[in-house]
Amino acid sequence: MSALVVAAARYLLYGLVLVAALVWVTRDRAGRLAMLGQAALGLALVGAGIVVAGALHVDPRPFVTDPASTPLFPHPADNGFPSDHAAAAGLLTALVGARRRALGLTVGVGAVLIAVARVAAHVHHAQDVVAGLAIGLLAGACAVGVVDRVARRRTTGR
């Protein structure tokens, strides 16, 4: 069971990136450019959100605060708030969900599995992954909205 937790906590994010890449390659040229812009803006917003949240709140990792809580894989004893993995998964959920709702729901389930696995692996507290998911989803929603609005203005001339 712990091997599944470790696999989800460490590697499931790569699967979500692959799903997003598959959605990207199935788009037309304009759709690929839009999704690329959304991803770039979303990553910048996620990065800023992580830096700001980490500066506002410090949450030592579970294995730091409770020596009996051994992580299932090696991890630095740095600030665990917010979870970078959960933020990236939240961003991917928003990007995929904006174009393919059903597939976005599947990616969202994967994002939640990553978050749960990171808590189960004792490298994050629940608040770390919830904050990460929220930052990623919000950044993704903002990026999709901004890029889509710019694209509409370019095509309509307004």
The biggest beta sheet is recorded as: none
How many distinct beta strands?
0
Question: How many discrete domains?
Answer: 1
Q: Helical stretch count?
A: 6
Can you give keywords for this protein?
158 residues; mainly alpha
SSE arrangement:
Layout: H1 2-25, H2 29-56, H3 62-65, H4 84-99, H5 101-120, H6 126-156
Helix pairs in contact: 1-4, 1-5, 2-4, 2-6, 4-5, 4-6, 5-6
Structural features, described:
The chain has 158 residues and is an all-alpha fold. It has one domain. 78% of the residues lie in helices and 0% in strands. Helix 2 packs antiparallel against helix 4 (84-99) and helix 4 (84-99) packs antiparallel against helix 5 (101-120).
In short:
The protein is mainly α and 158 residues long. The protein is 78% helix and 0% strand.
